[in-house]
Design brief:
Strand content: under 5%
Shape: flat
Order of helices and strands: EEHHHHHHHHHHH
Length: 207
């Protein structure tokens, strides 16, 4: 039998009932608090340690100084976003990296809702989010603003609304999924791989 009380070496009782109850009743609040803490840590890390832009980030920043409909190897969305944040914030590393940090804040939400829809359990959905926050690749793309940062978050939203579309047969969700798919294609051309993956899933589901 699992108990909600633990004893520390000093003999006093640590009651876990209230925090566990809060998390189970307000999972989105819990995820938001965790996301905010991680985002603040990333901002402090960037500002205090004076992290330079990576070579890739610097390239995309230069693209934002010469806006176009496409570039040599990538679609234009990352340059457009760098251009906008460059207007809002003073020029510097944070004006570029803040985009990655914001993506890191947003990305866990579609994962949470997708996991909850599939497994119908808050515990599994929260665990999925916490695991995501530990992945080295995720921490890289949410600290360094690259096309992988954008395609990751748009892939997650496309996946979520595609699942909703298939489950509910609602055209509204297909439209939203298509919108995120388009944004993903404006971020990185490899987003096109979502289509064969979807076709394979639909074929296997029909068997």
């Amino acid at each position: 039998m699992i108990t909600e009380k633990k004893y520390n070496p000093g003999g006093s009782v640590i009651n876990l009932k209230k925090p566990i109850s809060f998390i189970s009743k307000h999972p989105l609040w819990f995820i938001t608090v965790i996301n905010l803490l991680v985002a603040v840590i990333r901002v402090i890390y960037v500002v205090n340690d004076g992290i330079d832009l990576s070579t890739e980030e610097a390239q995309y920043w230069l693209w934002s100084k010469n806006l176009d409909w496409s570039y040599y190897s990538k679609p234009p969305l990352i340059a457009w976003i760098n251009y906008l944040t460059g207007i809002i914030m003073p020029h510097g590393e944070l004006s570029v990296k803040i985009n990655a940090i914001l993506i890191g804040f947003v990305s866990p939400y579609p994962l949470y809702f997708l996991a909850k829809k599939i497994f119908h359990q808050n515990k599994i959905a929260i665990t999925a989010v916490l695991l995501l926050l530990t992945f080295p690749f995720f921490n890289y793309i949410t600290t360094y603003f690259t096309t992988d940062s954008l395609v990751f978050v748009f892939w997650m939203f496309t996946l979520l609304y595609t699942w909703k579309s298939i489950e509910s047969h609602c055209m509204k969700y297909w439209f939203i999924a298509s919108l995120f798919m388009g944004l993903g294609l404006l971020s990185k051309y490899t987003m096109i791989l979502f289509y064969p993956a979807l076709v394979i899933f639909l074929l296997l589901s029909a068997v």
